[in-house]
Specification:
By secondary structure, the chain is an alpha/beta fold. It contains 13 helices and 8 strands.
Length: 297
């Protein structure tokens, strides 16, 4: 079952851009290879960290095809399919080719702020329109509305192809409630690097990570140790990256991780408007932490 494969380190893949803001497909190939070679368990493409709202439909298709070809079935691929219009999500699921995609990630509808019943009906309509495995995505800091634990559990119990939730509410009590009361076939995945360690101790099965773009091997080791019950050594790694977790989001995502990857010589430090690179002070702080960690930059 796919839910047993969406465990450990999932990486929310960035979209590298050239100085002229065109997609840097060569850098993307190198990054995918780097992640495959360094203990990444699955990839999440065309979601928040990919700057998907700024990509054209043609660019999205090219990125999807490139990643599928490069991965070649070695690890699962989750793809973002979201909208605040339920009909648009269903249309995409019914008309697009998802060959090579193992599951979809679909965020709680944003901006129009549906009620809990509206969120439930949104996911009901999606789940009954497709056989694709679905990962819910709760990130109220971006959507403007929190999907409460009882709504997540109601969806998880009612629709067997809804296999997991990426939880980024920041509410540990809410996440623990979901973990304690979920069906056995439903998984909780961290959507926030900084709280991945405590969530793993509560029973989460992994993370869809931003920092994993830059440090897949190190972050994957922390996750594996925690899942094996070696909390002391996992906590040491968590503390090692604590400062980078803060710097990652101080100027927004994916500006922080793109600065890290740029400092490591892997990509241009380029985003598409309305997003902009980190401030110089943040970039310098990132370089200092990387140097302190003995990471070449």
């Amino acid at each position: 079952m796919i839910q047993t494969r969406l465990r450990g380190l999932g990486v929310a893949l960035i979209t590298p851009f050239k100085e002229d803001e065109s997609v840097d497909y060569d850098a993307l190939r190198r990054l995918v290879d780097y992640l495959l070679q360094n203990s990444t368990d699955f990839l999440c493409i065309l979601a928040t960290t990919a700057e998907t709202p700024t990509l054209s439909e043609d660019e999205k298709h090219q990125i999807k095809d490139l990643v599928i070809e490069r991965v070649d079935g070695r690890i699962p691929i989750v793809m973002g399919v979201s909208s605040n219009c339920t009909r648009s999500v269903i249309h995409t699921l019914e008309t697009e080719d998802f060959t090579g995609i193992d599951a979809i990630l679909s965020v709680v509808p944003y901006y129009n702020k549906p009620s809990q019943e509206g969120i439930y009906q949104h996911y009901k309509a999606i789940a009954t329109s497709t056989d694709m495995p679905i990962v819910l995505y709760n990130v109220p800091g971006r959507t403007g509305v929190n999907m409460k634990a009882e709504t997540t559990l109601r969806i998880a119990n009612d629709f067997p192809n809804v296999i997991a939730v990426k939880e980024a509410s920041g509410d540990i009590t809410q996440m623990d409630d979901i973990i304690k009361n979920k069906p056995n076939t439903f998984q909780v995945i961290s959507g926030d690097d900084g709280i991945t360690y405590p969530l793993l101790t509560l029973g989460a099965v992994g993370v869809i990570s931003v920092i994993g773009n830059a440090f897949p091997r190190e972050f994957s080791r922390m996750i594996r140790l925690a899942m094996q019950g070696d909390y002391a050594n996992a906590l040491t790694i968590h503390h090692k990256f604590a400062e980078l977790f803060k710097l990652l989001f101080v100027d927004g995502n994916p500006a922080g991780v793109k600065s890290m990857l740029n400092a490591m010589g892997m990509i241009e430090n380029k985003l598409r408007l309305p997003l902009v690179p980190t401030r110089i002070t943040t970039y310098d702080a990132i370089r200092k932490v990387l140097n302190d960690l003995n990471i070449k930059c």
